[in-house]
Amino acid sequence: MESRNLSTVHDAIARQCGAVVSLPDPPGSRRLHHYKSRFVAAAPQAGGMWVEAPDAGADAVEQLIAAGSLAGVSFRSGPTKIIFTSAICGYDPALCVRDGLTVEAIRLALPQKINAVQRRNDYRVKLRPEDAGVRVWRMPRSASLKDKPTASREVTALARDLSTGGMGVTLVGRDGRPPVIDPADRLRVVLNFPQISLLLEARLRHPRPPYATDTVQAGIQFLFSEDMPGRQARAGLTRIIGELQREEIRRLRLGLSA
Hints:
The chain is 19% helix and 45% strand. The protein has two domains: 117 residues, Pnp Oxidase, Chain A (Roll), CATH 2.30.110; 129 residues, Thrombin, subunit H. Strands 1-2-3-6-5-4 form a six-stranded antiparallel beta barrel. A six-stranded antiparallel β-barrel has the order 9-10-11-14-13-12. With 258 residues, the protein is of the alpha+beta class. It is elongated. It has three helices and 14 strands.
């Protein structure tokens, strides 16, 4: 994992990725000042990297170098936030990046430890019964999403929360028996909102059978195709979730249950 994170840092340097650099203010202080910056170039001979100098002033940077201060660096790599601290080793008021282009930059040592924090991509909203109607069917492997499903393949599902990635559901079996469903099943999901109806393909995320009771808490992951219907379904779901999120915030501000 550490080597993978280091590779991510090298890739960010090569792409001159934007970053946030945090410096002690003043040197030796526990108080940090955060500056927008970017990776500029690798410093292979010195075993480090160059980043655009924060707007702290040359004198302040020289003081940090003399004090052996550490800089904090953070940047995004997809849904992951990469964070590390590194010694400030040098300063160049006019580092040549390429012909005709120079930048004020500081040199940082390669970090000894790198932390990666996974960010959740999808905001998840709680669903009330009046927010949406949900119907779920098990699909044959060769079936098309638009094929009319049979009643025997329907699985009773009560939605608990929703995101663009999927939803949390309670699956209910028939006649006191556990629901007939398996993670290997293709699922046909219809979400009925007051504004729109969406037809989606999905998979059961967890748990695996055998189930002990007639109600099972599970997650459903949506699968979006890259064709026009898939993109339209994703866009429609994103818009609905945004509206539900705003309504959730309004209710919380009014002191109502979300």
